[in-house]
């Protein structure tokens, strides 16, 4: 028998232990194991197990039990237990795609009993169908064999129970009989589910978009009707002919967490037709053509052959810097430093220990002046010296009247962290005769060098914001209300800050001044700002709102509090690419004098973009508190799409030309709601680069 052969193969490979002998035993197994599955294995480090080998053996035993429990939970249709096991263990730990002794996988049982919720949970975790079912006939034969053998076993046990006198052995046979009766009903239900199922309907909302000049992206939804069988995979086909004769390529999508697929390696300027079909255990359903019917791989830059704005800029700046350093190589200011080592050999741990040694040159009490501090943090904890203070070094004993300008200069220096020694050497010769501004900046370089040597920060830090992490300018003071966390074994101390109400909520509007004003912000607020400005946008095409405010010495830009490194924005769609056809339509729309241009033809990429833009503009204007009737006076920036890498791009929405930048004393006709602030343009540009 085919099923018996499968059992022999499984037993020979010792891949699965036999299942429970009864449904009640099955229930007891996976329910009694619930407490064990919730064990946090890190607790074993506290002494519950003596050796690492014992812990590994125990975990392996738990994994074997968890696999058996998963099969039983699927058979008993316990969705909560299935989700709990999938969340706690990886697919590899659960042996999610290894058949049991009956040649079945958890997904096979779920789809043949038509349990859609469990089947979807398994599919999203990466479950597959059994490789034994290569055709409809093989699946039908396999299930029929399981039913026939279970029925035969039930008949044999029934005869034995009826003919034998009551005894302990008879009681065991009664338990076996109940288990096989339950399994017989399960197999009959699986067989009925398979026989009643039909192929699925076509997928819905099949949308085709241009992903790049050589790729297309297709997204789709599940069929409206799966015809009593869960869809387990989809097939995407593409062709240059609307009849799909011939089919140029196809791909199977079996990871169903996100129903989309990107077709790579296409020819730019060629029209491609795409269709998608769904599959269940009865086979492939009818295909559904995409909307629009075809798409042409392209990019908006192809309309005028424009190169990316930032192409080669980093290389050009590196080359310029190397030329400047070459000119200064034989400068007198570098002579005293030729014999100095080029790099420190100390490890980070040694540097940190040296930092917190009592002999470290850090200030304990501060008075009026300019100081440099460095913050190392993890979660809500900040590293402090053995004297319970954040390490601080003095820059100058006077308070600069040009603090903002010095601060903005410092942000530029933070981008050259590895060149601090060279910059300091270049200023050494002219220090005595230089202006007060240069003298202050030279002292800043000295303080940075001292901090680098003491803390072992010769390499550029991961985050180079001048006032947040790892270095900060401005006045520093002790902040009360800090709680202790246990000292570490190296003698370093972690201070845990108490909850903060949020840095932006204290003073809205002018973040640059708030960050530099003494007493306005505690370290929690600085860390909160750093974390918020480090968040990355999800991939997609965004609509940004550009609003500037000018002052005598700087220009500020309006940004959201929760994401201050990006303009005020809403997402238009998940596809960041703007095709050549879409860009040409946008430029044509921008050149039309009528306030409301005619809609593009239906079922085209331009029409989809038109509809998406309408929704995005309404959402953005509501977000920044601009009346919708004023939208007719706003414009789309049609000179270029702002690309930030390959995954994020922006279209800009501009106010009327007279209101793009508000001058000092000028009334702002559009006052945004709370939740926004203005950043100096230089600070915003640094955050944008991150």
From TrEMBL:
Annotated protein name in UniProt: ANKF1 protein
Signal peptide residues on this chain, from the entry's feature table: none
Native source organism of the sequence: Indicator maculatus (spotted honeyguide)
Annotated segments matching region Disordered: 1-26
Pfam families, per the entry: fn3
Gene Ontology biological-process annotations: establishment of mitotic spindle orientation; regulation of establishment of bipolar cell polarity
PANTHER family tied to this protein: ANKYRIN REPEAT AND FIBRONECTIN TYPE-III DOMAIN-CONTAINING PROTEIN 1-LIKE (PTHR21437:SF2), WIDE AWAKE (PTHR21437)
Database matches in InterPro entries: ANKFN1, Ankyrin_rpt-contain_sf, FN3_dom, FN3_sf, Ig-like_fold
Domain of life: Eukaryota
Fibronectin type-III domain segment(s): 202-299
GO cellular component, one term: spindle
